[in-house]
């Protein structure tokens, strides 16, 4: 029986499974391979990010967009990221927080792609 996302243990479950899929994916795996040399700190950062985003737990520090801006990513990469993310959530959880995490992932992907498109159209190379 599936439960809802209730805390850090559940976050670790979906983050670990999701990034395991990412590393094996033919489209986005190579992008991550170029950007992430050590997965342990990346996963720790993702636990903190989602714990802050979903449960307002302090501890996350960083600028996620700034990390993604220099990457050669397009809409198809975000689309695949969302497919894998939603699949991971749906395979493991059910409930209000599971729906909320998927909504937040959708919003984040749309925001990142919008900002990247703007930067590229206006030939902006740095992020303040």
UniProtKB/TrEMBL annotation:
It comes from Pedobacter duraquae. The keyword Heme applies. InterPro entries: Globin-like_sf, Globin/Proto, Hemoglobin_trunc. Pfam families: Bac_globin (PF01152). Signal peptide: none annotated. Keywords: Heme, Iron, Metal-binding, Transport. This is Hemoglobin. It comes from the Bacteria. The keyword Heme applies.
């Amino acid at each position: 029986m599936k439960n809802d996302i209730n805390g850090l243990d559940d976050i670790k479950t979906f983050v670990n499974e999701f990034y395991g899929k990412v590393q094996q994916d033919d489209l986005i795996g190579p992008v991550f391979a170029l950007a992430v040399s050590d997965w342990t700190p990346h996963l720790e950062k993702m636990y903190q990010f989602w714990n802050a985003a979903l449960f307002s737990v302090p501890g996350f520090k960083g600028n996620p967009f700034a990390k993604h801006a220099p990457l050669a990513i397009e809409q198809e990469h975000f689309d695949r990221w969302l497919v894998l993310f939603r699949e991971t959530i749906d395979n493991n959880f059910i409930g209000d927080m599971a729906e909320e995490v998927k909504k937040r992932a959708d919003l984040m992907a749309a925001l990142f792609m919008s900002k990247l498109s703007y930067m590229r159209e206006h030939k902006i190379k740095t992020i303040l």
